[in-house]
């Protein structure tokens, strides 16, 4: 059993009435066995399990806990980066919290994710300036006014999909050149998203927020020293999830 198989155990299921006998094999896992395995996995790899649960929207508490544990990891290893080691204690703690939050958000993102529409700021509509005719002092005049119109970027939803605009989340696109040469549909890795199927969280956003708290970090310092550390935090989330998945497979097989 892997981590993805445990998601269904966290949501309510309707009662299924059937005349088929339940599995009686000694190798089959009962609900109690699964819950015990999940508890064991959570005790051995708390961060990896919490990170996965938060990514799957199973628990908001696990999402908060994952960010906290990632912040602790960042504080423990940030002194290896000279630019971060020189920061004041309070500023360093705040910077690590920001980096951990953005790194975890990038880890959780997928082709099915949505993000707030920048055009309408999540409202679903925009304010448009118009001219209206009104009677003022006995005469008709054009007066400036405003009206609410639906956002054309998100179609009033307030959110937009994170899926790649070229491959629509598939991670593959059609190679038109080879298709003309061979006469068959030839697929290639999408160049825009590099096969991920979605757009990553821009690292420049994390830099912009960190720069508000400390002017000591320039864009050159960010790209040269801090950006690799930021990528390390994202990889740590994936590494912890893989470790939790390995532990769960080991205890259930």
From TrEMBL:
Pfam families in the record: Antiterm
Matches recorded under SUPFAM superfamilies: DnaJ/Hsp40 cysteine-rich domain
Protein name, UniProt field: Antitermination protein
Record organism: Moellerella wisconsensis
Gene Ontology terms describing biological process: regulation of DNA-templated transcription
Keyword field: DNA-binding, Transcription, Transcription regulation
Transmembrane segments: none
MF term (GO), any: DNA binding
Keyword Transcription listed: yes
Keyword Transcription attached: yes
